[in-house]
Design brief:
Elements lengths: L3 E6 L7 H12 L2 E2 L10 E12 L2 E12 L9 H5 L7 H6 L3 E8 L6 H18 L4 E4 L4 E3 L1 H8 L2 H5 L7 E6 L7 E6 L8 E6 L4 H18 L8 E3 L6 E8 L7 E6 L12
Parallel strand pairs: 10-13
Antiparallel strand pairs: 1-5, 1-6, 2-3, 3-4, 4-5, 6-7, 8-9, 9-10, 11-12, 12-13
Helix pairs in contact: 1-4, 4-5
Amino acid sequence: MAYSIELFAREPIVFNRDRLLAAMQSRFGNVESPEPKADGATQMFLLHDHLCHFTDGSIPAQLVLLPASGGPDVEKYAASFEQSWSFRNARDVLEGCHYTCLFADMMSAALPHAKRRQLLAGGLLSVLESQAIDAVYFVETQQFMTPGHLIEEFNRRQQIANPVSGFINVRFFNVANSPGDMVMDTLGLAPFGLTDLQMHFRGLEPNEAARVLQSTAEYVFERGDIIDDGHTIQGRVADERWGCRREESLLEPKRTVLDINPGLPFAAGRRAA
């Protein structure tokens, strides 16, 4: 399944293919870009040094740019504006954008999750350094990010080795009809075959819960899906341990999550019993 990232711009998106190909080659080595069949057609980049192995053979990982006509339907993203923590004025920016483009990988799901993210991050960085873009939307994590923030992050040594910016989103919701109850979860691990996280709590500072979820998600991205039922993770401080178990998510999209129990007096829902 492709990993999709939407790009939005105020001005027409017209990629300089030679410049973009050179940027890709500087990061990925042997990259081929077949000549598009027409102006404005899909542009494809074949990463020959990064092979995806299947039972019947191997093919290069692929990055593609698919232009779209017309501007975005802003209301489609209403819920995502509320969960885009580093881009609080995303709605205002998107309302001024009249051009869109889809950036995605293809045939890359067989790669190790860390390698796949490195290719996506490096490819996206090549695009952002080659073309004026005003807003970036990570479809899988339902969040907007500014191009400037991503360029800065993806040039950091730690992010080059283990990209997480944009690939993790910690969401926050108040629970209707249950005053004081809150749910936070992550989006971003499941698309890479890992397990997203969830916490249902009350009386706990949301920023503290978010820090635990963020750091735990980054740990899973780096180490793999090694936290299982009955395991514990570090809570807010070094000597605080919070238990984990797998269950169906409380929030959409429905998926198996690793539910983190912060213990009494913070546990909410069935955990409080």
